[in-house]
# Entry
Amino acid sequence: MGSDKLWIEFAGRPAWRWGLDTLLAVPGMSWVVVVAPADAVDRFRDAIPESARGRCEVVAGGEERADSALAGIAALTRAGFPEDAAVLIHDAARPAASSELMERIANAVTPTDGAVPVVSLHDSLKHVDNSGRIVGAFDREGLALAQTPQAATLVVLRAALEESQAWGRKMTDEAAAFGAAGIVVRSVAGEPGNQKLTEPGDERLVAGVLAQRSMPLVPPAVGEGQRAGLGFDAHRYGDDGALRLGGIEFRGEPRLAGHSDGDAGLHAVIDALLGAAGAGDIGSLFPPGDAHWQDADSGELLRRAVSTLAAAGWRPVSVDLTIVAAHPEIAPRRADIAARLGELCGIDADAVGVKGTTSDGLGFAGAEGIAAFAVAVVAHT
# Structure
């Protein structure tokens, strides 16, 4: 990948955190062990969200996949989990697996059988020699692509992996160890979007799946001469100053870190408006490297964005803003935010929608910061 793929960020979260957060959301999931490179244990441990520290542990892995899997199993054993506990092993390089898939895999485990998600093959399979010449074809009937998480009981997993080690087998996944040990492996329907980060370009496929899941926004129907745009922004909590969000101040809440005043709500609205008018994005209008915008009032940035639209022959018609935050509570200030957005955009407050939601403690917007999504409609003047 040209870099450490587990730290590629998607919407403010590194790839491995998407998998961790999803696992922690699976009903009945009581403990997650992150098996990290031996020289990076502290880095991973420091990045565990505070809300997950009572249900998560980081341990050092080994040279081979089996070594790392057994290190995780040993941690579960030390934590006191029974031998018949269902255990899922998931590749952190598959950040887009859903909690529904993980729950299906867990439910498919029996005392003696393992479970593996698979997806059908749709492309023709060819045999290519070292020169790049196609020398044959394979019948894809009955073939499938294996994914993770793969699962079995603690005792079955340990036995299969230890046998693979004893025989010096190079296993590509847990299913290979199950099969070699004579353990029945049940297939469960996988997910086409459960892509693995392996080669450059894979991150774009994964980003699309995660964007659809985390921002399932669809531009509204627009009239003649109108266009719609989508906007997104996220900032981590900072240390000093009061929180600015949606153009208003929330006293007693930590300020968001970032260029200007860190108002993720207004930044999302700016991007939605600019996108609808085909006028670039907030970074092109207000470059983050320009010291002029350091600590700037995001309300002023929004006014300037509206002026940019006007110069290009567009005017705002409506704005819908969704703020994802564990705190502060948005509902009591909804009318204030709508009024402020209406004032800044030059539209009636009735044309502004404001919603607050949480991520149920998951991920970036669960404990580390605030995310915002916006939909804007503009009309040609």
Notes: The chain has a mean pLDDT of 90. Residues 5-205 form a domain with the Spore Coat Polysaccharide Biosynthesis Protein SpsA; Chain A fold (CATH 3.90.550.10). The first strand starts at residue 9 and ends at 10.
